[in-house]
Amino acid sequence: MKYLLNLLTLKSLRDRSQVEQLLQYIIEEPLEDADNKRSFKFPFIACEIFTCEIDVILRTLAEEGELMNLLFSFLEPNRPHSALLAGYFSKVVVCLMLRKTVPLMNYVQVHQDVFCQLVDLIGITSTIMEVLVWLVAADDHVYPNFSDVMQWLADSNLLEMIVDKLSPSCAPEVHANAAETLCAITRNVPSALATKLSSPRIFGHALEDSHSKSGLVNSLSVCILLLDPKRSAINSPLMYSFLNQLMYEPPIPVNSETINAMLPQLDKMSRRTYEYDEDVSAIATSVVIVYCINIFIILTFNIFVKII
């Protein structure tokens, strides 16, 4: 009897009208006079139903264009974006990412404004940032056509939009989330998107325009990761022995153009740290020092390899 009831419940929940109602609980803010059930209980239950990863329910959502439009209408700029509903929205999208990857990516490739809207909302809550990170920094275990998706993203202006969020006009929380997204892309090597991020023309204006406290620190955090020695391509077995590095895969090369583009900015950034208050100056100075150390290590490695 219990098994039969479960089947009847699943059959009911997978109906398009039921899935639409569940989505409305997740993306629509309740009215001011709504009771606690509508404000808190129903959105929570709706999110739990989707994230239970029941295939028939997710399939109904992923394969129905109008339902996907309804889900991503949450990102529209004229809507309110509470942290509570943003969290539920993010959980549903990540669940689709894991279980219905191909339909989801097919949808966002057709509706490229999704990425623009995610970038615009990157500062409202870290959960929105997590959705963007899942979409742009997933590995080949998630995407069946990983290289094609990364190349498509690299050919778009997505990276430029994220880097623009490091500008002084943006709030500190926007700087932090944009930097975290760029760092996630940087770690996802090798990929066309990570390679494009290493290009000087992408991050150059982030360094030049970092006239704000958080903008400078967060821009430098991305640069430091780009110069991470663990990502350096030291192909010589002697160098591996010299550094005593035990790795399963050869490290990724650091773009020499990246290093050359960063060097002229060091003096400017060092002087700029003294323009801030004592606490921020100390943080920024520490970041610049680490930045210089990383550049020195990379240059030393490159010279050593040439000698060998």
User: Could you tell me the radius of gyration in angstroms?
Assistant: 23 Å
Topology pattern, helix = H, strand = E: HHHHHHHHHHHHHHHHHHH
Major β-sheet annotation: none
The count of DSSP E runs of length 2 or more, i.e. the number of strands, is 0
Q: What structural class do helix, strand and pairing data support?
A: mainly alpha
State the oligomer: single chain
> Shape from CA axes?
elongated
- Tally of alpha and pi helices: 19
Low-confidence stretches: 1-8, 232-249
Q: What would the average pLDDT be, to the nearest integer?
A: 75
**Residue share in helix:** over 70%
First and last CA, distance: 75 Å
Provide the β-strand percentage band. Answer: under 5%
InterPro entries: SAPS
Family: Belongs to the SAPS family.
Transmembrane segments: 280-305
Pfam families: SAPS (PF04499)
